[in-house]
Every structure is written in structure tokens, then in C-alpha cells.
Sequence to fold (228 residues):
Amino acid sequence: DAGVIQSPRHEVTEMGQEVTLRCKPISGHNSLFWYRQTMMRGLELLIYFNNNVPIDDSGMPEDRFSAKMPNASFSTLKIQPSEPRDSAVYFCASSPQGGVTNEKLFFGSGTQLSVL
Amino acid sequence: GEDVEQSLFLSVREGDSSVINCTYTDSSSTYLYWYKQEPGAGLQLLTYIFSNMDMKQDQRLTVLLNKKDKHLSLRIADTQTGDSAIYFCAERDGGATNKLIFGTGTLLAVQP
Fold:
């Protein structure tokens, strides 16, 4: 299995531009998570989906952030408009069991976002 | 709310044992985890322990859980330079969301 696949690997954009991050979870996994990692705040859960349905989006910073999961094999995290303080590494992770008993997460390699 | 705390940095010499500590607040956590993040990569699950256990050993890794004090530790025996990474402790939210709460991470630096 190829694991969780994220694209792009690196993104450099200017303030005000729209940014779309993409994720393909491991086939057969029921849950998908978006995390943001920064030096100041560590690893923060932004949103997670179970069977393509958003379950908890309380970590989404503000309305500029939105996430979708149109099907079991694809999710996007969009920032519009982007700001310099959004610069971070964004990780997607998937889990096979939907959090029923033991939440083992499998992480992608992340997208390094720089907003200038 | 839940909170998971770790020390930020640990430096050891190759061949020595490393002990990384973690404290958590949610007493209803059923599973606790250790994840490893190597430079430029995502987190990988190293090991986990069920809350009714005190200890779990997996090759060079030993996890100790003190549920009374809400303290979790990861011991790495015979630490190698390849063990240099950031180590995250995580607890599973005991509530309805089932999400993982991660600690701040401990950077382990192994000196040759």
C-alpha cells in the first residue's frame, strides 16, 4: 500500500491567494484527519471525517478554512484567502477503524505551506 | 479540556538509554500512544498501551504507565543515532469524538 498521499509536498504562495491541499487516504480506512504543525502550537487537529462526514471541525481556525471529503478516497483542505500566519506543515492522516476502539493513525508526509 | 505535556528536548549518547516522559489529564483515556516523527516526514506509530496495563515491552522500547499519576514514559534501550527524532505522546479522547490529543513533542538528539 502506498500509504497516505498528500500533495503538493511544498506550496509557496502570496498573501490573499487561495490554497488547496489534497489528501488520498489509505484504501479502506474509515476516518480522515487534518492536522497543522507549527513550532509555536505543536500539532493541532483541524477537522476529522468519519465515513466522509465531518465529525468535529472545532479546530478549524476561522472561516477562511474549509475542508471537504467528496468520497472515501479524497479530501481537500482549502484556505481562502491565505495569510502569512497560516504558514505551517499540514498533515493528513487516516485510520482504519473509525475511532471505535483503538485509534491508530497513519500520517502522510505533509504539505509545507509558506504564505509570503 | 484534555492536555498532554512533554519536555521539549532530550540529549543522550549513543548506546545509553533514553527516557521520554509525558503527563496527561484525561483519566478516561483508554489507549495511550507514542508516535515518532523523523525530519521532513509525518508521524509514525511506534507503540501503544491499553490503560489497564502498567508496562509494555517491544524490543528496545518499554512503555510504562502510571495511571494514578497520569504519567506515561517511553524508554529506548541502547539508543542509536537513527533514533534521533521528535517523539509525541498521545491520548485518545475518552469522550464521544474519539480523537487523539497529541503532546507538544520531545526532540531526542543522540550524540555519537
Remarks:
- Chain A touches chain B through 22 residues (CB under 8 Å).
- DSSP finds no helices and eleven strands in chain A.
